[in-house]
Amino acid sequence: MNAIPRPIENIRIAKSRMGFAVCLFLVGYLAVGLRLADLTLLRGGDGTAIHTPQKPAIAQSRRADITDRNGTLLASALEMAAAYADTTLIKEPSILANDIHAILPDENKDKLVKKLSSGKKFVWLRRDLTPKQEYALNALGSPAINFQSEDRRIYPAGALTAHIVGYTDIDGIGIAGIEKSFDASLRDKNAPLQLTLDLRVQHILRNALQKRMKEFSAVGATGIVMDVHTGEIIAMVSLPDFDPHKPGDAKSRQRFSTATLGVYEMGSTFKLFSTAAALEAKQVSFSTSFDTKEPIRYGRFSINDYHAKRRRLTVPEIFIYSSNIGTARIAQTLGETGLRDFYAKLGFFTPVPVDLPERGKPLYPRPWKDIHTLTGSFGHGIAVTPLHITRAAAALVNGGILVTPHIIKDNATSLSPVAQGLRVVSADTSEAMRKLMSLTVVEGTGGKAKAAGYDVGGKTGTAEKNIKGRYVRDKLISSFLAAFPMREPRYVVLASLDEPKPSKNSHGYATGGWTGAPVVGEVVAQMAPLYGIDPDFDADGMMTRGMEKYLKEGKNVAALSAHR
């Protein structure tokens, strides 16, 4: 075998050694580079590790919109900028605090200095920046200030729907109203959640209530409009209300939903239900009369009439004149438990099944005694929510079926699916109650609920508030509970004022006929045309032909009382 020439062998060895040297240099340079990166990029000047600030996790899907029945936006998610700071990079906290305060003047300067001096890697500066504020903060050029995008919940209708739609916290978690009830589904679904509310009617109802609140110097007001056949809540207002963007700035009274959470003695509106109970049991008829000359005395209790007639009154007269004595006499015909059982059937002893977390639990006598049949007949000693009596009134005018109130348009997504309606009174009793309610507006205490061209019927209610176990004479809950059009009822309307005071035009009265009834008349006059309910005048241009139909036995209470 021939030997390799020595010069060639030397060249091969030199190349091998040079390659090995190059590899050593590369490994050395790589090690130095990694060390430099570690020291300059991943660690601070003192060699401590630099960590990426811990930012809250942002939901992958945007929270779904909430709309009214017509698709009008009630709640939506809007992408906004949020600013945070790494305070370890700040050399002059007071100077930076001054600069930030100039851009965000509502931020407390001393708190800013303390926050920026904390030495923390992550502190929030503001989470709901406007584009102008974001630009100005960025223009400061501080390496300590950084930004991220977040979804913020906005409510285009503001306070108008605050008690129903509710609100979320700063992290987008539902805290009240529909936002709380449907928190999980709103985060998971893409399609809007549609409510039964009509923002137009909501606006009409709120304006009418606010007007009467101001006129009667009331501390609050409640209103509800509900479809008597489906149970859909078309409008529901609790006053005072609040800005859902700033719920923390509102007082607890403003955030309290009087329509569904508050329980109150609703006074003579309960005469609707005690009268219906007796008619349904066939214990009385329109021609039945009772002696109302003297108060009813029961032990230390005395039942009196507000405007005593001092004579025998028929059932229609007792109803339209709102006689406590007469109503108690009617209730006596039902026996000890008859009225209690009827109230239970109407749902007065359990919370109303509605898709809201704010649901009040009724208060009622336990055990139920004879005296409670008398006082409970006109709403004394029983406290329910306004939604309770709205639901019950719908059953009395719709033919006798107790419907389930609901606020979600698509029943398939409702938390409380609409159940098969329960019959609570016969069609004949329902017809009789519509006649009595019509008479109350034509000749009785509800005259101010008249809306030209529309046949409205209803019942007034005025109750003294029970405060710490005592009834206070000048602190009232004054209401009017109505339905329309009475010839073929479609909607029930409740208007109630909390602690109204007599106005200069009310002749010293602050009762339901003066406070709640005008609200109902105003709502009906504006709502009816929106819903295609045409006005219907008689030859005199006053009473509607529809109302004549329900009073066909006679146009006055005397004629109706003679009807058996």
Describe the structure.
β8 (220-227) and β9 (233-239) form a beta hairpin. The protein has helices spanning 6-40, 93-103, 109-116, 131-139, 162-165, 177-181, 183-188, 199-215, 252-255, 271-280, 315-320, 324-332, 335-345, 370-376, 386-397, 427-442, 512-530, 545-550, 557-561, and strands at 66-67, 73-85, 123-129, 145-154, 167-168, 174-176, 193-194, 220-227, 233-239, 289-291, 296-298, 301-303, 312-314, 401-402, 422-423, 457-467, 470-484, 491-498. It has a domain at 201-561: 3-Layer(aba) Sandwich (Beta-lactamase). By secondary structure, it is α+β, with helices and mostly antiparallel strands. It is 35% helix and 18% strand. It contains 19 helices and 18 strands. α2 (93-103) crosses α3 (109-116), α8 runs antiparallel to α17 and α10 (271-280) packs antiparallel against α16. Strands 1, 2, 3, 4 and 7 form a five-stranded mixed β-sheet that branches. The protein has a five-stranded antiparallel β-sheet with strand order 9-8-18-17-16, with helices on both faces. Strands 5-6 form a two-stranded antiparallel ribbon. The model is unreliable at 39-60 and 545-550 (pLDDT under 50). The longest helix has 35 residues, at 6-40.
